[in-house]
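Minimal example, chain plus 5,10-Methenyltetrahydrofolate.
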Amino acid sequence: MVAQIISGLAVAQDVKERVKKAVEDLKASGITPCLATVLVGDDPASATYVNSKQKTAKELGIATRDHRLAATFKQHELLELVQLLNNDPEVHGILVQLPLPKHIDEFAIINTISPLKDVDGLTPYSAGMLQNGMALLKPCTPSGVMELFDYYKITLEGKDAVIINRSNLVGKPLVFMLLERNATVTVCHSRTKELAARLRQADIIITAVGNRERFTLTADMVKEGAVVIDVATSRISGKLAGDADFEAVKQKASWITPVPGGVGPMTIAMLMKNTVSAASVLRGASG
Ligand SMILES: Nc1nc(=O)c2c([nH]1)NC[C@@H]1CN(c3ccc(C(=O)N[C@@H](CCC(=O)O)C(=O)O)cc3)C=[N+]21
Protein backbone atom coordinates (compact mmCIF):
# COMPACT_ATOMS: atom_id res chain seq x y z
CA MET A 1 0.00 0.00 0.00
CA VAL A 2 1.14 3.55 -0.65
CA ALA A 3 -0.20 6.09 1.81
CA GLN A 4 -2.30 9.09 0.96
CA ILE A 5 -0.76 12.30 2.22
CA ILE A 6 -2.56 14.23 4.94
CA SER A 7 -2.05 17.86 4.01
CA GLY A 8 -1.90 19.88 7.19
CA LEU A 9 -1.27 22.92 5.03
CA ALA A 10 -4.59 22.49 3.20
CA VAL A 11 -6.62 21.71 6.33
CA ALA A 12 -4.99 24.60 8.22
CA GLN A 13 -5.98 26.89 5.35
CA ASP A 14 -9.56 25.65 5.65
CA VAL A 15 -9.61 26.27 9.42
CA LYS A 16 -8.07 29.71 8.96
CA GLU A 17 -10.72 30.73 6.43
CA ARG A 18 -13.45 29.81 8.92
CA VAL A 19 -11.64 31.68 11.68
CA LYS A 20 -11.30 34.74 9.46
CA LYS A 21 -15.08 34.85 8.94
CA ALA A 22 -15.66 34.44 12.68
CA VAL A 23 -13.27 37.32 13.33
CA GLU A 24 -15.27 39.51 10.94
CA ASP A 25 -18.52 38.60 12.73
CA LEU A 26 -17.00 39.37 16.12
CA LYS A 27 -15.70 42.71 14.88
CA ALA A 28 -19.17 43.54 13.56
CA SER A 29 -20.49 43.01 17.09
CA GLY A 30 -17.81 45.30 18.51
CA ILE A 31 -15.20 42.80 19.66
CA THR A 32 -11.73 42.58 18.14
CA PRO A 33 -10.20 39.25 19.18
CA CYS A 34 -6.73 39.78 20.59
CA LEU A 35 -3.92 37.29 21.18
CA ALA A 36 -1.01 38.10 23.47
CA THR A 37 2.16 36.08 22.99
CA VAL A 38 4.93 35.95 25.57
CA LEU A 39 8.42 34.79 24.65
CA VAL A 40 11.22 34.64 27.21
CA GLY A 41 14.79 34.23 26.00
CA ASP A 42 16.32 34.06 22.54
CA ASP A 43 15.94 30.45 21.40
CA PRO A 44 15.74 30.81 17.60
CA ALA A 45 13.23 27.96 17.10
CA SER A 46 10.87 29.45 19.70
CA ALA A 47 11.22 32.88 18.10
CA THR A 48 10.31 31.38 14.71
CA TYR A 49 7.17 29.76 16.14
CA VAL A 50 6.09 32.96 17.87
CA ASN A 51 6.75 34.95 14.69
CA SER A 52 4.49 32.71 12.68
CA LYS A 53 1.76 32.85 15.36
CA GLN A 54 1.95 36.66 15.23
CA LYS A 55 1.91 36.70 11.44
CA THR A 56 -1.03 34.31 11.14
CA ALA A 57 -3.08 36.26 13.70
CA LYS A 58 -2.58 39.46 11.74
CA GLU A 59 -3.56 37.76 8.47
CA LEU A 60 -6.86 36.73 10.04
CA GLY A 61 -7.61 40.18 11.47
CA ILE A 62 -6.81 39.16 15.04
CA ALA A 63 -5.15 41.91 17.10
CA THR A 64 -1.93 40.97 18.86
CA ARG A 65 0.33 41.88 21.74
CA ASP A 66 3.91 40.73 21.39
CA HIS A 67 5.96 40.47 24.59
CA ARG A 68 9.60 39.47 24.08
CA LEU A 69 11.67 39.35 27.21
CA ALA A 70 15.32 38.74 27.99
CA ALA A 71 16.37 35.29 29.19
CA THR A 72 17.19 36.92 32.54
CA PHE A 73 13.58 38.03 33.08
CA LYS A 74 12.61 36.98 36.59
CA GLN A 75 9.83 34.62 37.54
CA HIS A 76 7.99 37.23 39.61
CA GLU A 77 8.16 39.68 36.71
CA LEU A 78 6.67 37.09 34.39
CA LEU A 79 3.91 36.32 36.90
CA GLU A 80 3.14 40.04 37.02
CA LEU A 81 3.00 40.26 33.22
CA VAL A 82 0.59 37.31 33.02
CA GLN A 83 -1.62 38.94 35.69
CA LEU A 84 -1.56 42.19 33.75
CA LEU A 85 -2.72 40.35 30.62
CA ASN A 86 -5.36 38.45 32.66
CA ASN A 87 -6.78 41.78 33.80
CA ASP A 88 -6.59 43.51 30.42
CA PRO A 89 -10.13 43.47 28.96
CA GLU A 90 -8.78 43.90 25.43
CA VAL A 91 -6.79 40.64 25.58
CA HIS A 92 -8.70 37.41 24.95
CA GLY A 93 -5.90 34.87 24.60
CA ILE A 94 -2.55 34.47 26.36
CA LEU A 95 0.14 32.22 24.92
CA VAL A 96 3.33 31.76 26.92
CA GLN A 97 5.77 30.04 24.59
CA LEU A 98 7.40 26.95 26.06
CA PRO A 99 9.98 25.92 27.09
CA LEU A 100 10.72 28.70 29.59
CA PRO A 101 14.28 29.31 30.89
CA LYS A 102 15.30 26.93 33.67
CA HIS A 103 15.10 29.50 36.47
CA ILE A 104 11.37 29.90 35.85
CA ASP A 105 8.81 27.45 37.22
CA GLU A 106 6.70 26.61 34.16
CA PHE A 107 3.79 25.25 36.17
CA ALA A 108 3.62 28.38 38.32
CA ILE A 109 3.36 30.55 35.21
CA ILE A 110 0.81 28.40 33.38
CA ASN A 111 -1.25 28.06 36.54
CA THR A 112 -1.50 31.86 36.70
CA ILE A 113 -3.06 32.21 33.24
CA SER A 114 -6.79 32.87 33.48
CA PRO A 115 -8.64 29.74 32.26
CA LEU A 116 -10.84 32.07 30.21
CA LYS A 117 -7.76 33.21 28.25
CA ASP A 118 -5.95 29.86 28.15
CA VAL A 119 -5.76 29.51 24.37
CA ASP A 120 -3.02 26.87 24.74
CA GLY A 121 -5.36 24.73 26.84
CA LEU A 122 -2.55 24.07 29.32
CA THR A 123 -3.89 25.28 32.66
CA PRO A 124 -4.92 22.61 35.18
CA TYR A 125 -8.48 23.89 34.77
CA SER A 126 -8.44 23.28 31.01
CA ALA A 127 -6.78 19.89 31.48
CA GLY A 128 -9.45 18.87 33.99
CA MET A 129 -12.23 20.11 31.74
CA LEU A 130 -10.77 18.10 28.86
CA GLN A 131 -10.76 14.95 31.02
CA ASN A 132 -14.43 15.58 31.66
CA GLY A 133 -15.20 16.11 27.98
CA MET A 134 -16.22 19.71 28.75
CA ALA A 135 -13.29 21.84 27.59
CA LEU A 136 -13.83 24.88 25.40
CA LEU A 137 -10.11 25.57 24.97
CA LYS A 138 -8.09 22.45 24.10
CA PRO A 139 -4.33 22.19 23.48
CA CYS A 140 -3.63 23.26 19.91
CA THR A 141 -1.46 20.43 18.60
CA PRO A 142 -3.75 17.58 19.75
CA SER A 143 -6.87 19.38 18.54
CA GLY A 144 -5.09 19.98 15.24
CA VAL A 145 -4.50 16.23 14.97
CA MET A 146 -8.20 15.56 15.64
CA GLU A 147 -9.13 18.11 12.98
CA LEU A 148 -7.00 16.16 10.47
CA PHE A 149 -8.84 12.92 11.30
CA ASP A 150 -12.18 14.68 10.82
CA TYR A 151 -11.24 16.39 7.56
CA TYR A 152 -10.08 13.12 5.96
CA LYS A 153 -12.91 11.13 7.58
CA ILE A 154 -10.48 8.79 9.31
CA THR A 155 -12.62 6.97 11.87
CA LEU A 156 -11.33 6.23 15.36
CA GLU A 157 -14.07 4.07 16.84
CA GLY A 158 -12.62 0.79 18.10
CA LYS A 159 -9.18 1.54 16.61
CA ASP A 160 -5.97 0.81 18.49
CA ALA A 161 -4.12 4.12 18.80
CA VAL A 162 -0.53 4.21 20.06
CA ILE A 163 0.92 7.56 21.13
CA ILE A 164 4.66 8.04 21.63
CA ASN A 165 4.70 11.09 23.89
CA ARG A 166 3.47 11.72 27.43
CA SER A 167 3.71 15.52 27.70
CA ASN A 168 0.99 17.85 28.96
CA LEU A 169 1.17 19.60 25.58
CA VAL A 170 0.67 16.57 23.31
CA GLY A 171 0.42 13.01 24.71
CA LYS A 172 -1.85 13.47 27.71
CA PRO A 173 -4.49 15.63 26.01
CA LEU A 174 -4.50 13.24 23.03
CA VAL A 175 -5.44 10.38 25.36
CA PHE A 176 -8.70 12.09 26.31
CA MET A 177 -9.50 13.27 22.81
CA LEU A 178 -8.99 9.79 21.34
CA LEU A 179 -10.96 8.12 24.17
CA GLU A 180 -13.83 10.49 23.53
CA ARG A 181 -13.92 9.05 19.99
CA ASN A 182 -13.92 5.48 21.30
CA ALA A 183 -10.38 4.55 20.31
CA THR A 184 -8.32 2.22 22.51
CA VAL A 185 -5.30 4.23 23.59
CA THR A 186 -1.78 3.18 24.56
CA VAL A 187 0.77 5.77 25.68
CA CYS A 188 4.44 4.93 25.15
CA HIS A 189 7.56 6.78 26.30
CA SER A 190 11.28 6.43 26.91
CA ARG A 191 10.85 3.55 29.41
CA THR A 192 8.33 1.55 27.41
CA LYS A 193 9.26 -2.12 26.81
CA GLU A 194 8.75 -3.70 23.40
CA LEU A 195 7.97 -0.39 21.70
CA ALA A 196 8.27 -1.81 18.17
CA ALA A 197 5.93 -4.71 18.97
CA ARG A 198 3.34 -2.32 20.40
CA LEU A 199 3.59 -0.07 17.35
CA ARG A 200 3.11 -3.03 15.00
CA GLN A 201 -0.30 -3.64 16.64
CA ALA A 202 -1.44 -0.06 16.09
CA ASP A 203 -4.12 1.05 13.65
CA ILE A 204 -3.10 4.62 14.38
CA ILE A 205 0.39 5.79 15.40
CA ILE A 206 0.88 9.30 16.74
CA THR A 207 4.57 9.94 17.23
CA ALA A 208 6.11 13.01 18.88
CA VAL A 209 9.65 12.29 20.02
CA GLY A 210 11.60 14.89 18.07
CA ASN A 211 15.03 13.31 18.29
CA ARG A 212 16.00 11.03 15.41
CA GLU A 213 19.08 9.76 17.22
CA ARG A 214 16.88 8.44 20.01
CA PHE A 215 13.99 7.27 17.88
CA THR A 216 13.10 6.84 14.24
CA LEU A 217 9.77 5.35 13.20
CA THR A 218 10.86 2.80 10.61
CA ALA A 219 8.72 0.80 8.18
CA ASP A 220 9.14 -2.46 10.14
CA MET A 221 7.34 -0.85 13.12
CA VAL A 222 4.26 -0.01 11.06
CA LYS A 223 1.36 -2.36 10.32
CA GLU A 224 0.20 -2.48 6.70
CA GLY A 225 -2.56 0.14 6.31
CA ALA A 226 -1.90 1.99 9.58
CA VAL A 227 -2.44 5.74 9.90
CA VAL A 228 0.75 7.63 10.84
CA ILE A 229 0.57 11.10 12.41
CA ASP A 230 4.02 12.62 12.84
CA VAL A 231 3.96 15.44 15.37
CA ALA A 232 7.73 15.81 15.72
CA THR A 233 9.93 18.53 14.34
CA SER A 234 13.56 17.52 14.29
CA ARG A 235 16.34 18.06 11.83
CA ILE A 236 18.38 15.70 9.71
CA SER A 237 21.53 17.39 8.42
CA GLY A 238 19.83 20.76 8.70
CA LYS A 239 16.61 19.68 6.97
CA LEU A 240 13.29 19.70 8.84
CA ALA A 241 11.95 16.18 9.43
CA GLY A 242 9.62 14.27 11.69
CA ASP A 243 10.13 11.02 13.61
CA ALA A 244 9.18 8.85 10.64
CA ASP A 245 11.43 7.53 7.91
CA PHE A 246 8.86 9.13 5.63
CA GLU A 247 9.54 7.52 2.24
CA ALA A 248 9.74 3.99 3.66
CA VAL A 249 6.79 4.31 6.07
CA LYS A 250 4.70 5.80 3.26
CA GLN A 251 4.95 2.47 1.44
CA LYS A 252 3.06 0.71 4.26
CA ALA A 253 0.70 3.25 5.80
CA SER A 254 -2.75 4.15 4.48
CA TRP A 255 -2.41 7.79 5.55
CA ILE A 256 0.62 9.80 6.65
CA THR A 257 1.41 13.40 7.64
CA PRO A 258 4.51 14.99 6.13
CA VAL A 259 6.95 17.19 8.06
CA PRO A 260 6.88 20.07 7.28
CA GLY A 261 3.33 20.70 6.11
CA GLY A 262 1.57 18.27 8.45
CA VAL A 263 0.71 18.83 12.08
CA GLY A 264 2.80 22.03 12.49
CA PRO A 265 0.54 24.34 10.48
CA MET A 266 -2.50 22.84 12.27
CA THR A 267 -1.09 23.86 15.66
CA ILE A 268 -1.07 27.48 14.61
CA ALA A 269 -4.50 27.33 12.96
CA MET A 270 -6.04 25.84 16.12
CA LEU A 271 -4.45 28.57 18.24
CA MET A 272 -6.30 31.11 16.10
CA LYS A 273 -9.51 29.12 16.49
CA ASN A 274 -9.08 29.08 20.27
CA THR A 275 -8.46 32.83 20.32
CA VAL A 276 -11.76 33.41 18.54
CA SER A 277 -13.52 30.97 20.91
CA ALA A 278 -12.15 32.84 23.92
CA ALA A 279 -13.30 36.16 22.45
CA SER A 280 -16.74 34.72 21.60
CA VAL A 281 -17.34 33.57 25.16
CA LEU A 282 -16.81 37.16 26.19
CA ARG A 283 -19.48 38.27 23.74
CA GLY A 284 -21.88 35.78 25.36
CA ALA A 285 -21.02 37.10 28.79
CA SER A 286 -21.59 40.71 27.82
CA GLY A 287 -24.94 39.89 26.22
N1 LIG B 1 3.07 27.27 24.75
C1 LIG B 1 3.41 26.61 23.63
N2 LIG B 1 2.45 26.31 22.73
C2 LIG B 1 2.80 25.67 21.57
O1 LIG B 1 1.92 25.37 20.74
C3 LIG B 1 4.17 25.33 21.35
C4 LIG B 1 5.10 25.66 22.33
N3 LIG B 1 4.70 26.31 23.45
N4 LIG B 1 6.40 25.34 22.17
C5 LIG B 1 6.91 24.67 21.00
C6 LIG B 1 5.83 23.88 20.27
C7 LIG B 1 6.14 23.61 18.81
N5 LIG B 1 5.09 24.26 18.05
C8 LIG B 1 5.03 24.32 16.66
C9 LIG B 1 4.22 25.21 15.98
C10 LIG B 1 4.24 25.31 14.60
C11 LIG B 1 5.06 24.50 13.85
C12 LIG B 1 5.06 24.66 12.34
O2 LIG B 1 4.34 25.45 11.79
N6 LIG B 1 5.91 23.92 11.61
C13 LIG B 1 6.01 24.00 10.16
C14 LIG B 1 7.41 24.30 9.70
C15 LIG B 1 8.08 25.41 10.42
C16 LIG B 1 9.55 25.59 10.03
O3 LIG B 1 9.82 25.65 8.84
O4 LIG B 1 10.39 25.63 10.97
C17 LIG B 1 5.58 22.71 9.53
O5 LIG B 1 5.64 21.66 10.21
O6 LIG B 1 5.18 22.72 8.36
C18 LIG B 1 5.86 23.58 14.49
C19 LIG B 1 5.83 23.50 15.87
C20 LIG B 1 4.25 24.89 18.93
N7 LIG B 1 4.61 24.68 20.21
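The domain at 31-114 is CATH 3.40.50.10860 (Rossmann fold). The longest helix spans residues 263-285.
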